[in-house]
Design goal:
Order of helices and strands: HHEEHHHHHEEEHEEEHEEHEHEHEHEEHH
Binding site for ATP: 200-207
Structural class: alpha/beta
Distance between the termini: 75 Å
CATH superfamily of the largest domain: P-loop containing nucleotide triphosphate hydrolases
Strand content: 15-25%
Radius of gyration: 27 Å
CATH topology of the largest domain: Rossmann fold
Protein name: FtsK domain-containing protein
Keywords: ATP-binding, Nucleotide-binding
Number of domains: 2
Shape: globular
GO molecular function: ATP binding; DNA binding
Number of helices: 15
Bound molecules: adenosine-5'-triphosphate
Largest sheet: 11 strands, mixed
Number of strands: 15
Helix content: 25-40%
InterPro entries: FtsK/SpoIIIE/SftA, FtsK_dom, P-loop_NTPase
Length: 451
């Protein structure tokens, strides 16, 4: 037995050392970063960036990156560096050969597993695979600036795809959503923290994310969730949830959408009056646990510039209601989730953008669209389905969102299905009215609630 372990270890060491020799050793990130900056002209009057602090990764303290803090030469801006992030990243990953392998890597080989393999060929293949997997790891960088430029260098990149596992829901307390994974693990969002904007070109993951959000609500807060689902892609994406008891309104055309939003606004105004009587200024203080989520996909179908002329007035009305919901709704227990694949001009109204504190942006077609959503370029460079830039008040980061499968959604939905009476008789009325020269007058009373 001991002899076998020794043979396998020798095998691993010899193979690993051979590969390490081929590579020529591990490079110095600080030196490389400075060389790259110089090579692409990021220096001024002959002065290069100067290293001020090194802070190595410490897995025991859950710190997954090494941080290098540089002073930048006078006359250069952080944006000069930020726009070259890919150049720095690729530079750090340049290898002299195909393999890079260290002695500490050899220690990570699972000896027990190796021992169980019967033939020498299987053992060699196991080690080869281990080395191949190790070498497919790519360093990645995050940059930030606080008077000095911070390079966070991770030994691994964000995963390219992560399938959702229902066990993630056990890790969520309150209104938490398991959004996806970054370089350090799961990223959670608080669904009760404010309104959401979700943007992304077609097939990059918006609908998947909406399904994950709704499934999370139905799993963790089935009795405290109410939903208004506005699916202007023909109702195909949200149809899973149409018959859930939590779905108070379901709209798959502009007229029903406007009618539903109008109801929500009336409900919010009603609730304001109720809170005023109770002399409190939000639902939490009033002891109301229910939250109502208004989920709109695809919001460009409610933008006056994008709809046929006969629907323009309706679209204006819808936008006014949605803006109202984002201004007043949060403290009243109403959350807007505004999703669009086409964030240009009036599809991204200022009020909705300004009043939403979480933005999830998948790939967009142009840098102008990226600026419209995030106030900066970058979303046009995303290549992967499900990869997003998450922007919250505390900062920005890239996340690979979870991919939830239809079977899981069905399992979540089934216990929540109810046979409904036609709840939307009123909506049907409004719809009829809408087709017969209806004149819309906006009466959005903004009642101040007592503090
Ligand atoms: N998080 C993800 N990880 C990996 N692949 C994904 C992810 N989200 C979506 N995809 C892939 O992209 C396909 C389309 O996703 P989705 O339906 O969410 O697109 P979309 O952005 O809503 O597009 P559209 O606006 O045209 O409906 C999915 O069927 C899946 O194959």
């Amino acid at each position: 037995m001991l002899a076998e372990i020794a043979t396998s270890l020798t095998l691993a060491s010899v193979y690993g050392l051979a590969q390490m020799k081929k590579d020529g050793g591990v490079g110095d990130d600080v030196k490389k970063i400075r060389q790259i900056a110089d090579a692409i002209g990021l220096k001024k009057n002959g002065q290069s960036i100067i290293i001020r602090r090194r802070d190595p990764a410490d897995k025991e303290k859950n710190k997954f990156y090494s941080e290098y803090i540089f002073q930048i030469p006078l006359g250069l801006a952080f944006s000069d560096f930020e726009t070259k992030l890919n150049v720095f990243q690729d530079g750090l990953n340049i290898k002299k050969t195909l393999y890079s392998f260290s002695l500490s890597d050899i220690k990570k080989i699972n000896i027990k597993k190796l021992m169980k393999l019967k033939s020498l060929k299987a053992k060699i293949n196991y080690i080869k695979k281990f080395i191949k997997d190790k070498n497919s790891i790519r360093k990645s960088i995050e940059m930030s600036y606080d008077g000095m430029i911070h390079f966070k260098v991770y030994d691994q990149d964000i995963p390219n795809q992560v399938d959702f596992n229902v066990e993630k829901w056990d890790e969520c307390n309150g209104w938490k959503l398991p959004l996806g994974e970054n370089r350090e693990g799961t990223v959670f969002l608080d669904l009760a923290s404010g309104h959401f904007v979700i943007a992304g070109a077609t097939t990059f993951g918006k609908s998947q994310l909406l399904k994950l959000m709704i499934s999370t609500l139905l799993t963790n807060k089935p009795n405290e969730t109410e939903m208004t689902l506005v699916d202007l892609k023909g109702g195909l994406e949200m149809q899973y949830f149409e018959d859930c008891k939590q779905t108070i309104n379901f709209a798959d055309d502009i007229e029903t959408a406007v009618a539903s939003l109008k109801h929500i606004v009336a409900d919010i105004q009603q609730r304001q009056k109720m809170l005023r009587v109770k002399k409190v200024n939000n639902v939490k203080k009033a002891g109301i646990n229910k939250r109502h989520f208004i989920i709109v996909d695809e919001a460009s179908q409610l933008a006056p510039s994008q709809v046929p002329s006969k629907y323009k007035e309706l679209a204006k009305e819808a936008q006014a209601y949605m803006s109202y919901i984002t201004r007043i709704g949060h403290s009243m227990g109403y959350t807007l989730v505004y999703a669009t694949q086409y964030p240009v001009g009036d599809v991204m109204p200022n009020q909705i953008k300004a009043n939403s504190n979480t933005t999830i942006c998948f790939r967009l077609e142009t840098d102008t669209q990226s600026e419209t959503v995030l106030d900066q370029k970058g979303a046009e460079q995303i290549q992967l389905q499900g990869r997003c830039i998450l922007s919250v008040p505390s900062g920005r980061q890239q996340v690979q969102t979870y991919l939830i499968d239809d079977k899981t959604i069905k399992t979540v939905v089934t216990p929540n299905i109810v046979i409904k009476s036609r709840k939307d008789d009123t909506l049907a009325e409004v719809r009829k009215e809408g087709t017969t020269n209806r004149r819309y007058t906006l009466e959005l009373e903004e009642t101040e609630v007592l503090n």
